[in-house]
Design goal:
This protein is an alpha+beta fold and 606 residues long. It has helices at 2-26, 33-59, 63-69, 71-96, 159-167, 198-206, 251-261, 292-298, 367-370, 374-389, 396-403, 408-420, 464-468, 486-492, 495-514, 528-544, 554-579, 598-601, and strands at 151-156, 175-176, 179-182, 185-188, 191-195, 211-215, 237-241, 269-276, 279-288, 305-309, 338-339, 345-347, 435-439, 445-449, 516-517, 523-524. The strands form four sheets. The protein has a nine-stranded mixed beta sheet. Strands 10-13-14 form a three-stranded antiparallel beta sheet. It has a two-stranded antiparallel ribbon with strand order 11-12.
Length: 606
């Protein structure tokens, strides 16, 4: 009986050792190649020695009489230690080497390269029945962004698909995910991809804490044989921003809160814990995608012309070369333009439209998507620039013409917020970037906010005093003229609209710091922003400690939020001074970079 027990124990240990070896060969432990190779070699050695020891025990071979007849004790002890080694070592290596766990030649992805042919696609999925209970055309998806608590998001994705996304992160290419759960609402087979531009490239140099976009109907749609395009409670897309450049973790949260309170069309948002394949990826900023659901619930004018603009054409300056496309009826006609299958303009060459490709090349838009809207858009753009050039902007004619092409009251609120939070990574910066234009069918423009991880003086400022005293009377960086930014010039240089703009700046003082009731008839407590930061900073630090790829440590986050409170307090004083024509500068005694800057994004991996 005793011998039978010994044999059973030995066989079980042998099987466990074999399983451990097989796992080491076939499973990605998310450790670097040199460590994985060492582990595999040692696993093979342990496996061979284990077989030898067990054989010695069974057949009473030598091996110094299995260490002088202490066979059962030695074998069992050695086997247990071997198995512990095989199972525990990879996880220890992962802890020690978590910043270099990507293994193929790109430095990102799995330890082997994944091609498109290796991907799981919608064709590999057994016919999927869309969950009708989670489909909606109404604004039901606000429950996904309930800010009473930090959200929890779980993304399940085939390991090769995930590896492909990481390996080809800069391409921002959609792959099939198996499912996503946001606050207990689960939907299957969405599209999954990386997102961003500057932050995407910055992350590529550092680690794998990328920002992501989920498109619920990317693959479940009529093109793939389904009767509708899938959504989640009416939501089509959602993005998860990685917080790169923002050690406070709160710049976007506070910025979008302010836009929302100022009754500006604003995406839903919240903080979320992000898990991919049950691995914690950190605290992310979750935000509704710029798509039809946002427009329908905020503007609802029936137009589909909405685009995120960056760089080329984003200054909204009209180029007179466009006049050659105006026909005899005074309308723009682009029907003779030829573009290839990739939607690049190929005729005529050196076309003036290429200097506006920031309108259709950003995100998923292309020339074909927007070509039908261009005649109306450029007609509005031409009118905007004629008004921009008018010397006297205080005439009735000026105001009447302007009121036909843009929501000037909303523009005043939008500009007031950007000016107050010193968001120079936007239309008011050196480069006109990071905003959304929506245009109605008759050419009426509405501006929508987007991308605020570098707000609160996070770019182009080396000194905190300069940032907190950013000029509200010329809310542009110093080397930019007002005429170079028509959306600012048409507002600031009209007395009526300038007064409106400053009224909203005073409202923002009330919302962020002073407390009281705004012109929009909303009431706030004193030190509102300070209290919001205080209520969240400990939770942020607690979550950061679990995040092995966080861009920032706990001390940086703590300092960042303390100095963000100082920035908000000093900015309130500076804006108040300027509103009352007091030119005395407010002094700031902290390092502006500690609350986040573009320099964090430019850090290289060493």
């Amino acid at each position: 009986m005793k011998r039978v027990i010994k044999i059973i124990i030995s066989i079980l240990l042998l099987i466990l050792s074999l399983i451990a070896y097989v796992i080491s060969i076939n499973y990605s432990f998310n450790i670097s190649l040199k460590y994985l190779t060492m582990f595999r070699i040692s696993s093979i050695c342990i496996f061979i020695i284990t077989i030898y020891l067990v054989s010695s025990f069974f057949f009473k071979c030598t091996f110094k009489e299995v260490l002088k007849n202490k066979s059962i004790t030695i074998v069992v002890t050695y086997m247990i230690l071997s198995i512990l080694y095989i199972f525990i070592t990879p996880r220890l290596l992962k802890v020690f080497d978590h910043n270099s766990y990507i293994l193929n030649e790109t430095g990102h992805g799995l330890y082997y390269s994944v091609s498109k042919d290796d991907l799981k696609t919608i064709k590999d999925v057994k016919r999927y029945k869309i969950n009708e209970k989670l489909q909606s055309k109404e604004d039901d998806y606000n429950v996904l962004f309930d800010k009473k608590d930090i959200a929890n998001t779980y993304i399940d994705i085939n390991n090769k698909n995930y590896g492909y996304v990481l390996e080809h992160a800069l391409d921002k290419e959609y792959v099939l995910a198996d499912g996503i759960t946001i606050n207990d609402y689960t939907i299957k087979y969405p599209g999954f991809k990386t997102k961003g531009f500057t932050t995407l490239n910055g992350t590529w140099e550092l680690n794998n804490r990328f920002s992501y976009t989920i498109n619920f109907g990317k693959f479940i749609n009529k093109d793939n044989g389904y009767d509708k395009k899938q959504n989640l409670l009416g939501l089509k897309k959602v993005s998860f921003n990685s917080m790169m450049g923002d050690p406070t973790y709160l710049k976007e949260y506070l910025s979008y809160y302010l836009f929302q309170e100022m009754d500006i069309p604003t995406p839903y948002y919240n903080l979320t814990n992000l898990y991919i394949n049950n691995n914690y990826k950190g605290l992310y900023f979750m935000i509704e995608g710029i798509d039809d659901p946002l427009i329908e619930r905020t503007i609802n004018d029936g137009s589909k012309f909405t685009f995120k603009v960056d760089f080329n054409g984003a200054d909204l300056i009209y180029d007179s070369q466009l006049d050659k496309y105006i026909n005899e009826d005074g309308e723009f006609d682009f029907s003779k333009i030829i573009y290839d299958e990739d939607h690049n303009i190929i005729y005529p060459r050196n076309n003036v439209l290429t200097i506006y490709n920031g309108i259709w090349e950003n995100d998923e838009d292309n020339f074909k998507d927007i070509v039908d809207y261009l005649p109306t858009f450029f007609k509005t753009l031409k009118e905007l620039n004629e008004l921009n050039k008018m010397k006297d902007k205080n005439t009735k004619e000026y105001e009447e013409r302007l009121s036909k092409i843009i929501d000037i009251d909303l523009l005043a609120r939008y500009t007031a917020v950007n000016s107050y939070i010193v968001n120079t990574d936007s239309y008011i910066g050196y480069l006109p970037v990071n905003y959304v234009i929506h245009m109605s069918k008759d050419g009426y423009l509405t501006i929508i906010p987007w991308d605020y991880n570098l707000a609160f003086g996070g770019i182009y400022f080396n000194d905190a005093t300069d940032a907190v005293n950013f000029d509200i009377n010329k809310p542009l960086l110093s080397d930019r003229s007002m005429s170079q930014r028509p959306l600012v010039n048409i507002l600031i240089n009209n007395d009526k609209y300038n007064k409106l703009y400053k009224k909203y700046l005073n409202d923002i003082l009330i919302i962020t710091s002073y407390g009281g009731t705004t012109s929009l008839n909303k009431t706030y407590d004193k030190d509102n922003f300070k209290n919001m930061i205080e209520s969240k900073k400990d939770i942020i630090i607690e979550n950061q400690k679990k995040d092995k790829e966080s861009f920032f440590n706990s001390d940086q986050i703590k300092t960042a939020n303390e100095n963000l409170v100082k920035f908000i307090e000093l900015r309130a004083k500076a804006v108040d001074n300027q509103l009352h024509n007091n030119n005395e500068k407010v002094k700031a005694d902290f390092d502006i970079e500690t609350i986040g800057s573009d320099k964090f994004i430019k850090i290289k991996k060493t």
